[in-house]
Amino acid sequence: MGTEVFYKVNYKKRKIVFTVLALALSMGLTACSGGVNNNDPSASASAAGSPSASQSQPVSPSASASPSASAPASKQPASDLPVTKSFTIELEGNKEEREAKLAVGEGYSFYIFEQFSFDQAAGKLTMNVDPNYSVEIMKLPSDYNSDQLQVEGTEELKVVGDVRDITQTEDDGMIQNASVYLKASGDKGSKEYIVMEFGGNGYLIKVNIPVGEPTEGFVPLAYTSIKSIVNQ
């Protein structure tokens, strides 16, 4: 082979070798750079590194501990109630302001007037001039059944006389929103059997109204006391 041809062949081989080396060098540099595109903001953020798992994260208010339990709105402690309270009472056709004092029963409080006494253990409100004028208050369990109490009340009042199921249209406005309201009258007086709720809890209330002079004052005062019941 002539000298000129020999140099041409070797030149081509060297050119190929240089080209391969350049490509290899280029690939090596790319691998070292980690393939990060400096023009890609997301890639830069990734390269900066995310917070470690041990790093504390901000907690939203909803994810924080639940508020401390408080007493239901339907209940009110007796200590939060005023010792005395004034009520407007209609007596003998005239409206009067009467002051009543706080009395505490079993799981409830209410206001009673000076004409009355209250036996906490018995849950019984009586008129001082004649204890036969009375109101018995019983706090019912949460699973009480109004239909069953309607039947029981009817049986209980039968001994007095014919039992009437009192509606709000028949009532004089003293008692409203009662689920059971029964009344029976006889020669010796009348009795009422009432089931109603105060603060989301049911109460059974039995009212005894003998025939006598105190009746006119007993009814408005006693029912004002009943309506002042506060569940606790």
Keywords:
232 residues, alpha+beta, seven-stranded antiparallel β-sheet, 11 strands
Give the gist of this structure.
The protein is α+β, with helices and mostly antiparallel strands.
Structure in words:
- The protein is built from 4 helices and 11 strands.
- A hairpin with a 3-residue loop joins strand 2 and strand 3.
- The chain is an alpha+beta fold.
- The protein has helices at residues 3-32, 41-48, 146-157, 215-227; strands at 84-91, 94-104, 108-112, 116-119, 124-127, 130-139, 163-165, 180-186, 189-198, 201-210, 230-231.
- It is globular, with a radius of gyration of 44 Å.
- A 7-stranded antiparallel β-sheet has the order 4-5-6-10-9-8-7, with helices on both faces.
Task: Give the arrangement of secondary structure elements.
Blueprint: H1 3-32, H2 41-48, E1 84-91, E2 94-104, E3 108-112, E4 116-119, E5 124-127, E6 130-139, H3 146-157, E7 163-165, E8 180-186, E9 189-198, E10 201-210, H4 215-227, E11 230-231
Antiparallel strand pairs: 1-2, 2-3, 3-11, 4-5, 5-6, 6-10, 7-8, 8-9, 9-10
Radius of gyration: 44 Å
Protein structure class: alpha+beta
Helix content: 25-40%
How far apart the termini lie comes to: 119 Å
Mean pLDDT: 77
Shape: globular
Order of helices and strands: HHEEEEEEHEEEEHE
Q: Trace the largest sheet across and list its strands.
A: 4-5-6-10-9-8-7
Low-confidence stretches: 1-13, 29-73
Largest sheet, strands/sense/barrel: 7 strands, antiparallel
| Content of β-strand | 25-35%
* Total beta strand runs: 11
The total of helices stands at 4
